[in-house]
Amino acid sequence: MTSTVFATRLMEKIPRAGDIVSFRFERPEGYQYLAGQWHVVTIPVSPEPLTHHFTHSSSPTEPFLEFTTRMRGTQFKNALDSLPLGVQVEMEGPFGSFTLATASATATGDRRPLVFITGGIGITPVRSILRWQVDTGSALPEVLLYANSSENAIAFRDELDGMAATSPDIRVVHIVSRPSPAWIGRQGHVDAEMLADELGDVASHTYYVSGPPPMVLALRDTLVAHGVDRDSVKTELFEGYQ
Ligand SMILES: Cc1cc2nc3c(=O)[nH]c(=O)nc-3n(C[C@H](O)[C@H](O)[C@H](O)COP(=O)(O)OP(=O)(O)OC[C@H]3O[C@@H](n4cnc5c(N)ncnc54)[C@H](O)[C@@H]3O)c2cc1C
Fold first, then answer.
1. Which of 55, 104, 140, 177, CA to CA, is 20 to 30 A from 35?
2. Distance, CA 238 to ligand 1 centroid (Å)?
């Protein structure tokens, strides 16, 4: 898909969980992208515009464009926070290959279950992909392993759980490293033992791993060490996110 530079307007700011906020924009007519792709966002602030990369947390099936981020008090995030609704913002996109290979996979008869592994804000491309699959009825057998520090920090939790409840092909496993006493789900971090426990034969799946680089690279090493072919691990590194 060819990338283009375009102007759009901020329509809505949507608090998600903890300090996570989605920024929703008008989708220009004709702007096409694949679920899981990212774009470059330039916001008009003084003395100079500021630019960051963000994944589309929206799905191509939705009539708006959205990205989702953690508001951490940095120069960019403070500037983003101060933008009034209706302001014009420049975007360039789409970019990236953290997308489903559904067409070629079906052509080669590859129906291996998909496993999405992510943590924190790394959920953005996965939310885009799952929303697209649900909206188009194209979900494969798949599992999402979604790690967060606390249950209050799980972005899109209701929506993801709703997808799992209504689509027999989608299973969502939340993992919390510092849960409250009321938490009854999985605790700790995603490691080899947890993967084997959730998936059985770890080597027989196709993986999509997204988020901060240290987490993504460590998980890829774990998967490869447990017999997963390197080509079966697709990664998206949120460079700049620590
Ligand atoms: C393909 C891609 C997709 C992304 N998708 C998302 C998303 O959906 N949501 C989201 O919140 N973030 C996403 N990010 C990360 C995002 O672009 C910001 O880097 C992140 O949100 C941190 O911004 P900040 O303003 O909080 O911190 P910043 O003030 O920008 O930076 C924090 C720290 O990271 C360092 N840093 C900044 N940029 C880089 C870089 N390129 N390489 C190495 N170090 C760097 C800085 O020196 C600083 O120490 C994505 C990044 C990429 C590359």
1. 177
2. 6
